[in-house]
Every structure is written in C-alpha cells, then in structure tokens.
Amino acid sequence: MMGEHGIQSWCSISEGRVMLNEQLLHEAPSPDFREVMRSTYKALGIEHAKFHKMDPLSKLAFLTAEVILGEAKRAGSFSQETALVFANHSSCIDSDRKYQQSLDDPGNEWPSPAVFVYTLPNICLGEISIRHQLFTESCFFIAKEFDPATMNRYADPLLQAGIAQQVLCAWVEKNDDHYTSFAYLLDRADPGTARDAMLLKTKKEQ
Amino acid sequence: MSDLKQELKNKIISQLNLEDVAIEDFEDSTPLFGEGVGLDSIDALELIVMMDKDYGIRLTDPKEGRKVFESVDVMAAYIEEHRTK
Predict the structure, then answer these.
(1) Which one of B19, B38, B49 has the shortest CB-CB distance to A110?
(2) CA distance A45 to B26
(3) Are the CB atoms for A17 and A27 separated by under 8 Å?
(4) How far is B82 from chain A (nearest CA, A)?
(5) What stretch of H or E contains A159?
C-alpha cells in the first residue's frame, strides 16, 4: 500500500514523448525542448495565447498538467478542488540565467519584466491554476531528486481533511537542454494500491 | 509612417512572443489590450521598455501609457512626435 489515496492517472513528458497512463499520447518530431513544447501544444489542440509567453519550466508544467487534467475532464472526474504539489531540482534556473544575462548587459538599462516574472518556480502553479480555475492549496519544493514519499506526505493530509478532492503531484525538471516531467493525480475516493507504489518506485529509480 | 507601423507590429509580435499572431491578424486600429490583440499588464511593461530603448521615449505616467498603447496607429503617431532616436 502506498498510503491513504490512490493514483487516478499519471503522465510524463521526456525525450520527445508524451505518455498518459502507459500509452504514447504524442511523439514530437525531435526531442528538442522547443519542438516538443510546440508540437505537444498543437497536438493537444490547446488555445491559450499566454502559453507562448511562458518560460520553459512553466511550459513544461503547464503541458504536463494539461495532459492529466484534460484526461480527468474527459472522464468526468475533474475537480476544481484539485491541489498542486510540485517539485524539481533546478528551480527556474533557465529564467534565472536569462535574467542575470540581461542584468549583466551594460547597454540594457531595463531588464525584461516578462523574464523577471518567471524567476520563481512556483509561478508555473499560478499558470496551471488560472487555466483550470483552481482555487486550492499549492506548493513547489526544491529537492535533490524526485521523492514521492515527501510529496505524498504533503498531499495525503489535504485529502484526508477534505481540503482538496484531488492532488496533482508532479516532478517538473528543466535545466538547459535537459527536461523531464512526471505527474500523478491522487484522488480522495481511491484507496492506494500496490500497483501505485510500484509505479512511483519505478519512476523514482529512473 | 506606414514603415513605422509595420516595424511596431513586428516588434510587438517578436518581443511579446505572440507566436499565434501574424501581422495580417491585426489592423493598425485594432486595440492592443482587452479583446483586441489581448496584451496584458506585463506586456505593457515590455512596451514601456521598448519605447525607451528603441525610440528614446520615457513614459512615467501610467495614464499616459494606457493612451499611447491603445493601438499601433496611436503608438506610431506618439513615437513620430516624441522620439529622440
């Protein structure tokens, strides 16, 4: 048993492949991050102009959430009472670097406000909350590695106390050319199973 | 003036990352905010930076900025009148 609550669905974006519940949902023409984001956005038929203005971490988190919450909407199990528990290792390092470069440019008196707003990793949670109209708890941990035990320790009380009906837990890592995401949706009504524990163990070891 | 309007449209699209918008998609008179091109408050800050950097125009009054960024038509006219570079 993994704990009090079970995994309703899971998804991942890595090496140009978008997976949903062990099925290939989309494969980008190349594993290049920009190409993966662009082609996945189109393949999912999303119309959200703000997406193109987001920083790389927010794009990755947004599409990851879009896959799994979109599936929940199609299945009729989506709840606006979905909390967000996210984590990664590199925070928003891409945007930090870009902003630092603009600060270091002697000819640039005014660094870009559009870059500055993404110099916090939890901004991606705001983008997801706006998109899906979530008015719930959210947090973003910086950790050495994906640790489902820590995430579940935060998610389970939210579900047990009825603060959230579902919790979307996700590891979204983006640093230069490297990117990977893995998300799973915990449901208050589902008991945890051995299969859930195995899935998380496998993902942690990858 | 029409060259300046074209230049402004190109800059708005590229600097604000409007990947889904083409130059033909908005007229010179289309509102840039709200239901027009759909720019937001962060975009307004980017436009203020662009006015300073590219045309030497410093906008310090937010009310003035709201009027100047009404459309490409209004922006171009304001730049023609106030540009220092």
Answers:
(1) B49
(2) 23
(3) yes
(4) 20
(5) helix A148-160
- Cβ <8 Å between B46 and A114: yes
Which residue out of B49, B54, B59 would a mutagenesis test of the A interface target, given it has the greatest number of A Cβ atoms within 10 Å? Answer: B49
pTM, two decimals, is: 0.87
Q: Is residue A115 within 8 Å of A102, Cβ to Cβ?
A: yes
Q: Is A114 close to B52, i.e. CB distance below 8 A?
A: no
Looking at residue A1, its pLDDT comes to 43
ipTM: 0.70
A133-149 confidence digits (pLDDT tens): 999 999 999 999 999 99
Distance CA B56, CA B64 (A): 16
CA B2, CA A141: separation in Å to the nearest integer?
A: 50
Mean pLDDT of chain A: 91
Distance CA B43, CA B21 (A): 15
Distance of CA A98 to the CA centre of its chain: 21
The lowest-confidence range among A60-69, B45-54, B73-82 is B45-54
Residue with tokens 């203005």: A53
B19 contacts in chain A (CB < 8 Å): 52
Which of B21, B38, B46 shows the shortest C-beta gap to A112?
B46
Query: pLDDT category, A74, cuts 50, 70, 90?
Result: very high
Task: Choose the weakest-confidence range: A10-24, A82-96, A121-135, B31-45.
Answer: B31-45
Q: Tell me if residue A145 falls in helix, strand or coil.
A: coil
The SS3 of residue A97 is: helix
